[in-house]
Every structure is written in structure tokens, then in C-alpha cells.
Amino acid sequence: MTKTALITGASRGLGLALARALAADGWRLLLTARGADALKPVADELGALALAGDVADPVHRDRLARAVHDRGGLDLLVNNASGLGAVPLPPLASYPLDVLESLFRTNVLAPLALIQATLPGLRERRGAVVNISSDAAVGAYEGWGGYGATKAALDQLSNVLAAEEPDVAVWWVDPGEMNTVMLADAVGAGEAAAAPGPETVVPTLLRLIATRPASGRVSRA
To answer: Which residues does UniProt call coiled coil (predicted)?
Structure first.
């Protein structure tokens, strides 16, 4: 039976790299990202269904859930889409609370809402959830408090979900620094260019999916 995956933030970076690898393995893909112009060529390349939109938008999440249902369920949900928050990275003492509230909607509430919407199908097919985390969830890095707080919350949601849903594998993955647009926005293009490419994380994710180890936090390192 052909396996189906839903990947958020799939138009670039880690989401795109993983989508290409899964497509090469014969997976059927549902891909989403905010920019339709960037997402369409990816979907055309991979023979995937593209549904552009913001995962923080409940209407868009409903569209994604309906698409999953129409395809008979889901084997893999990858919550990769993420926001950075305020830039330049501010200290918590002056972090804009409206920006932080929006960041929690994107980085925490949206992944949980997608999990809730697709969980029946994931249970039925003994599927898996991959939530992309960060070392900022566990480390005290100046300026990364807002982003790190959202990833720490996502880690704990993943941890409890794993305990509550024994038939669904749940991994929250810290990919380490990657040369992505987000990292460049945070630290500058020069420093970001020195980081490994997101494709270097894909073997870790493929190994998880193929071998299905116990649910838990996974670091590429």
C-alpha cells in the first residue's frame, strides 16, 4: 500500500529536502507552505498535491484535514513549518508580546491542531508524527528566548502525545543548525552559509521512519 505523508513548510529547507527523499521512496505527498508560487514547482517536480496556505489559519488546516481524509488517512505528519519571531532577535525583557503570541500560534498551536485533525487516520494506520524542534528549546541562547519557548512547548506536547497515543510513533527532532533562510534571518547570511545544508538531516529522519524506534526526542548530533 502506498504511504501518504503531509509535510508543512515544504517549499524550501528541510521540508523540501525530506519531500524529495520521500518521493524518491514512492510516498504519496501532501505539501503545504505559505507561498503558492514557491510550492507549485515543488509539487510539480514531485507529483505531489500542493495546498498553499498558513498553518496558523484554521480554515487552511481544515482544507489539509479534508485532503488527508479524501486520501484514506495518513502514515506520516511532519510539522516542519515554523516562524522565527521578532528580528533582530530581542532579549525577553523587550520581546513584543503580540509577536510572541503570533509565534505560539504558528509553532505550537498549529502543529497540535494538525495532529488533532489527522490523529484518527494516524491511529488507524499506526502512523508517525515528526515535530521539528530546536536546540533553542533546551539551551539558554541570548535572543532566542521567544523562539526557544515555542519549541520547548512543542517538545512537551510531543512528549505527552507519545504517552497518550501508544499506537502512533512521535518523534521531536532537533536538526541542529542548518543553512536555511530562517537561520540567515537570525544570524546573517555569512554565518548561516557555514552551517550544514538541510539535506544532511534527511538520513536521520528516514532512519526514524524506516526503523520506527520508540517515541522520543531525537538530535541529529
So the answer is: none
